[in-house]
């Protein structure tokens, strides 16, 4: 009898596995170049549902048409004991990027990651602020696993007995090339759930796979112009008078300042929060915000979303909260409309209606002993695990929707995010403070549709200070976080000019940077990009056959090494930050000629170079044929009716064209057509001289620029 039961159980298990394996082959093209399959019983909430994005179909149609980029027969999906086992093929030289906001590694091939929202602990183990279950292959495709679950990814780390391409058998006793980790031909994922949706994104390049992913999630976020200026976060217990004084000190130093971060002391109580103004430090909050507005400054409020018993919100929202407290505050269940509506009414009345510009949302990540435990329950039936994976997404989506209803763009900070977040107006930050690892995180953010800032808090030396300030000025948010000690940009007088210069350079580059973010919104191109997303770097250059010499070609070098300390800002500018204590560094140049940003001098092409820059400049290199639009030095983003003179720099010996984007810089009217793309170009005339066009910005396209253009040819 027992044998019969075992036999029947085996038959049922085989049947369930084979059925789901068969369903895995039923891939449906849901958007151009994007395929989906659904396995088992997906839960009532997923990552993409929490993020709330909507695919930009027309933009996706503009990308190259493509067929399904993987062998469907080599994709294996099983459900065993209410757990999902996924298997995707990997070729021998294939690299794997993405799989979360990692701080120390770029190529994830050969690693094991436990994807789990957490406060980053200094290890690339999958527990991070954005454990996005999306990977990009160097072969030019992407895979997303849309489940609000913890999951373990074996990214080519283990060899199967039934491997299609078995690893070579080696003898450690005699083979000098013996490898402790034999190469695997599969990427495998274990998900403790009985249902999941899987998406495959075609390329044909890695960049185009990332573009499809971002466009599928609503396109990248286009910040207000003031969001791309400089921000200072003030000490915790600053009053409204202290903050006004702080803003005036920036004026007296002629230092850029577009928005100011107001830390926990604005609450009448924090940890947990009331979300109501402290009457002692902020007796007249609207007058305070109006004063900042007249100074051209937006206010960004710190919060964590855990409600204090002292808040007037507490009694009404309590029934829609979880079983456990965080910082002794109740945890709203934002999967429930009732909780969202109560929070909205409170925030709109106390913040948005009087002029608050955005939020810094803290403590939605972990550690485990800070946030709710996995035994917690929530009134919607959403599990604690699911809530952990989506909470940061839900808070981002909810707060951003309030601003959009007012037709007002916002820009803020968040400590936890996940898949589908590209269209949300938040930049990730944390308390970890390794400068080099911050740059690696910036590189990795480009694969997974999130933004990251290598914020500045403190430095031991003037050299470290200026190097950190240079990096943050070439990131999605130029932020000095002085919440703890009141540090100012000019705190090291010996490098005050160098710090001022790089902040001013960011402001001069606003037309280029704003257009780069517009590309993120309309084309899905990340504004700050890993070198592995650049043609001729992340995959073999056209015409390259066989193995590539890793000592000569950037592609070959990227196979052997993580290129994690340099990146692209937009289409044309390569950023190579310096770090304290370093006098020289290597820079890996992609295909084509590259020129020094400051001088226009040729520095190399398709090669590794060594540079020894001065302390006062961050190394920047520009692609041959590039057009870089700039404006004069200015402290703040343009106001209504204000226009700047436009200079366009041309670099190199190649002709080139580029489209400059503009709109009002504040509202969502651009989504209804109130924006412009103006094409600029340089070509060689019949007399052998450069000819530039157009000579003026037309009034139809002129949101923030004076008509006349100054053309500067950097390469003589």
TrEMBL record:
Domain Glycosyl hydrolase family 31 C-terminal: 561-628
Keyword line: Glycosidase, Hydrolase, Signal
SUPFAM superfamilies linked to this entry: (Trans)glycosidases, Galactose mutarotase-like, Glycosyl hydrolase domain
Domain Glycoside hydrolase family 31 TIM barrel: 221-515
DUF5110 domain location: 646-683
Sections of the chain in a coiled coil: none
Domain annotation Glycoside hydrolase family 31 N-terminal: ranges: 82-153
Keyword Signal part of the UniProt annotation: yes
Keyword match Transmembrane: no
InterPro entries assigned to the protein according to its UniProt record, in alphabetical order: DUF5110 (IPR033403), Gal_mutarotase_sf_dom (IPR011013), GH (IPR017853), Glyco_hydro_31_C (IPR048395), Glyco_hydro_31_N_dom (IPR025887), Glyco_hydro_31_TIM (IPR000322), Glyco_hydro_b (IPR013780), Glycosyl_Hydrolase_31 (IPR051816)
Signal peptide: 1-21
Family, per entry: Belongs to the glycosyl hydrolase 31 family.
The protein's name in its UniProt record: TIM-barrel domain-containing protein
Organism: Aquirufa salirivi
């Amino acid at each position: 009898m027992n044998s019969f039961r075992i036999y029947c159980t085996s038959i049922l298990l085989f049947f369930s596995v084979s059925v789901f394996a068969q369903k895995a082959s039923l891939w449906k093209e849901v958007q151009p170049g994007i395929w989906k399959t659904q396995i088992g019983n997906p839960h009532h909430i997923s990552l993409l549902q929490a993020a709330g994005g909507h695919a930009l179909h027309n933009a996706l149609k503009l990308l190259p048409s493509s067929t399904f980029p993987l062998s469907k027969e080599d994709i294996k999906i099983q459900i065993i004991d209410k757990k999902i086992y996924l298997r995707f093929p990997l070729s021998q030289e294939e690299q794997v990027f993405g799989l979360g906001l990692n701080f120390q590694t770029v190529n994830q091939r050969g690693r094991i990651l436990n994807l789990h929202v957490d406060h980053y602990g200094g290890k690339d183990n999958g527990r991070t602020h954005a454990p996005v279950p999306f990977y990009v292959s160097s072969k030019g495709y992407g895979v997303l696993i849309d489940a609000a679950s913890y999951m373990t990814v074996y990214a080519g780390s283990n060899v199967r007995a039934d491997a299609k391409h078995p690893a070579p058998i080696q003898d450690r006793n005699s083979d000098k090339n013996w490898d402790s980790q034999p190469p695997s031909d599969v990427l495998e994922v274990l998900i403790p759930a009985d249902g999941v949706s899987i998406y495959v994104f075609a390329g044909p390049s890695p960049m185009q796979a990332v573009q499809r992913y971002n466009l599928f999630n609503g396109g990248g976020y286009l910040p207000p112009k003031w969001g791309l200026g400089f921000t200072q976060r003030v000490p915790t217990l600053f009053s409204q008078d202290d903050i006004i004084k702080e803003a005036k000190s920036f004026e007296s130093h002629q230092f850029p300042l577009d928005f100011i971060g107001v830390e926990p002391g604005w609450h009448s109580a924090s940890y947990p929060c009331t979300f109501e103004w402290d009457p002692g430090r902020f007796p007249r909050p609207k007058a305070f915000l109006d004063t900042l507005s007249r100074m051209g400054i937006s206010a960004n409020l710190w919060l964590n979303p855990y409600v204090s018993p002292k808040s007037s919100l507490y009694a009404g929202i309590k029934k829609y909260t979880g079983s456990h407290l965080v910082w002794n505050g109740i945890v709203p269940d934002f999967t429930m409309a009732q909780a969202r509506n109560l929070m909205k009414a409170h925030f709109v009345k106390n913040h948005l209606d009087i002029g608050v510009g955005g939020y810094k949302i803290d403590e939605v990540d972990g550690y485990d002993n800070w946030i709710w435990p996995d035994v917690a329950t929530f009134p919607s039936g959403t599990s604690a695990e699911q809530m952990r994976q989506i909470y940061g997404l839900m808070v981002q989506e909810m707060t951003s929707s309030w601003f959009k209803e007012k037709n007002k763009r916002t820009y803020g900070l968040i400590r936890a995010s996940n898949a589908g977040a590209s269209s949300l107006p938040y930049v990730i930050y944390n308390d970890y403070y390794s400068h080099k690892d911050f740059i690696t995180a910036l590189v990795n953010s480009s694969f997974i549709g999130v933004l990251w800032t290598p914020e500045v808090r403190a430095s031991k030396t003037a050299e470290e200070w200026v190097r950190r300030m240079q990096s943050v000025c070439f990131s999605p948010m130029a932020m000095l976080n002085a919440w703890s000690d009141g540090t100012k940009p000019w705190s090291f007088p010996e490098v005050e000019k160098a710090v001022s210069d790089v902040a001013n350079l960011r402001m001069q580059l606003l037309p280029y940077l704003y257009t780069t973010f517009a590309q993120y919104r309309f084309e899905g191109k990340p504004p700050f990009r890993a070198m592995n997303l650049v043609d001729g770097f992340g995959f073999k250059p056209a015409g390259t056959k066989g193995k590539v010499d890793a000592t000569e070609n950037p592609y070959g070098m990227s196979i052997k090494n993580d290129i994690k300390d340099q990146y692209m800002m937009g289409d044309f500018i390569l950023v190579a930050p310096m770090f304290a204590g370093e006098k020289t560094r290597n820079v890996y140049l992609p295909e084509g000629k590259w020129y020094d940003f400051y001088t226009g001098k040729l520095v190399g092409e398709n090669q590794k170079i060594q540079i020894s820059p001065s302390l006062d400049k961050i190394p920047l290199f520009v692609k041959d044929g590039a057009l870089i639009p700039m404006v004069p030095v200015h402290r703040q983003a343009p106001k209504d009716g204000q226009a700047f003179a436009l200079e366009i720099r041309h670099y190199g010996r190649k002709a080139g064209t580029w489209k400059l984007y503009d709109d009002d810089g504040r509202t969502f009217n651009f989504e209804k057509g109130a924006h412009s793309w103006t094409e600029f170009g340089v070509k060689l005339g019949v007399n052998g001289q450069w000819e530039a066009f157009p000579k003026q910005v037309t009034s139809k396209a002129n949101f923030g620029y004076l008509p006349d253009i100054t053309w500067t040819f950097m390469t003589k």
